Structures are given as structure tokens and as C-alpha cells.
Amino acid sequence: MHLNPTWRATGQAGHRADVLNDERPDMQDAHYGQVASLLHWFIGAALLGQIAFGLLLDEIAPRNTPSRGAVINLHKSFGIALFVLIVLRLAWRLGHRPPPWPASMPYWQRRAARLGHRALYACMLAVPVFGYIASNFSKHGVKLFGLALPPWGADLPGVYAFFNGLHVATAWLLIALIAGHVLVALKHALVDRDAIHRRIWPWASGARAPRRTDPLPPCGEPRWRR
Ligand code: HEM
Predict the structure, then answer these.
(1) For the chain, what is the domain count?
(2) What does the pLDDT look like over 192-207, one tens digit per residue?
(3) What is the CATH number of the domain that holds 61?
(4) How many Å apart are CA 47 and CA 201, to the nearest integer?
(5) Which of 6, 30, 92, 121 could disulfide-pair with 207, CB 3.0 to 4.6 Å?
(6) Which residues have C-beta within 8 Å of that of residue 114, sequence separation ≥ 6?
């Protein structure tokens, strides 16, 4: 069920954002919207597939074998498509307020979660961007699902190696961040047994998070921030 947010007037302007969220009992079971949730699960699964594809490139098509070029280009094409989806997801996230944290969640955990999510977004963007830049400093360039995109950089093995090194390093950082993200979600579901993990389920019910275009409460009333 989608409820429009109702703003409770307490006249206590200037509270910290977390305190204000705790004043929103109507939002304690709030969840992400369906688009955000579907993008989350689809991109999550696609990222795992793309990471596995990258790590198995040498097994699937060993270097200097005829299939190597086609397989690498498939990895590049999937990576660029994934990048477009990640940008879309980030744009959606910036246009829609996430649901507030439940009152039971300590302040340090909220800070840590915000930091972790920002690092995940940064890495999700950095991995394909470094891969793409690297590829443009190689004579092979990129064939996007068969369409040759001529490289805009010169064939410079040193520059290629530098950006490819960043591509690999950020991919490993992304793997670590995803592992941490999953472990924390499992802890919430199995140990804390709170409702955090349900906020991102596509079939979750409860109040939806307000859009940025929803009217804000009049001046002096608490604002819902995260
Ligand atoms: C989110 C998207 C992407 C992910 C998660 C990803 C992940 C990976 C991983 C894990 C590897 C193997 C690293 C290793 O050797 O340990 C790899 C290799 C590679 N990736 Fe990506 N990648 C992505 C997008 C791209 C894009 C967009 C391009 C280029 C347009 C690209 C180009 C390459 C190349 C050329 C290699 C092989 C490097 C080599 O062994 O010479 N990747 N990628």
C-alpha cells in the first residue's frame, strides 16, 4: 500500500535528522519504491555475473586463442550496458528519498550504512569507467555488441596497463564491498531480526518513501531527512 507522508507538527525545529526520523512512526516500516527495488536486485545479480565473467576470462578464452577477442568484447559490452543501468539507478536514487532508518538503529550504524552505500555507488561507477578508459589506450578499442567504437586514445601499453590496473583494483574493492553489504544484510535478517532487509524487497508493503517532489512540511515543522 502506498501512503502519502503526513508531517507531524511538533514545533521542535532544529532537531538532528535521526531524531526527526524517529518522530515518524508512520514511516517505521517504509520501504524503497518498486523501481528502486527492481533495479537493486537486477543490477546486483548482473554485477555478480559480470565480476565472475571478468575473473574467468582467461579460462573461457585463454590469451592468444581465436575466441579471445570476441569474449573480451562481450565482457566490455555487458560492462557498458551495466554502467548505463547503474547511472539510471543513481539518477533514480537522487530523485527519490530513501525510507528513514528504523528508530532502533543506532546513529553510528546509520552513518556506516550511508558511507558503505556511497562507496558501493562510487565503485560500481569506477570499475566500468576505468575498464572503458583502459580499452581506449589499446589498439583493440571496444566492439559494443559488434559495433566497432574506434579508440579515442593512442595505442599506449603503459597507459593501458595503468587504467587496467585501476579496473582490476576497483573490481576487487567492489567484491569486498558487496561481501560486506551482504553480510550486514544477513546480520539484520538473522541476528537482529529487524525490518531493515525488508525495505528493499520488491513485494514489501508499508509506507513508501516520499519523492523529492512531494510537498515538504511548512517551515518550523520537522523535515524527514536521512
Ligand atoms: C561493472 C562492470 C564491470 C565489472 C564488474 C568488471 C569486472 C572485471 C573483472 C573482475 C576483471 C578481471 C580482473 C582480473 O584480472 O583479476 C575484468 C577484466 C577486464 N575488463 Fe572488466 N568489468 C566491468 C566492465 C568493463 C568495461 C566497461 C570494460 C571495457 C569497455 C572492461 C574491460 C576489461 C578488460 C579488457 C579486462 C581484461 C584485462 C586483462 O586481463 O587484460 N570491463 N573486468
Answers:
(1) 1
(2) 888 787 889 887 665 5
(3) 1.20.950.20
(4) 18
(5) 30
(6) 226
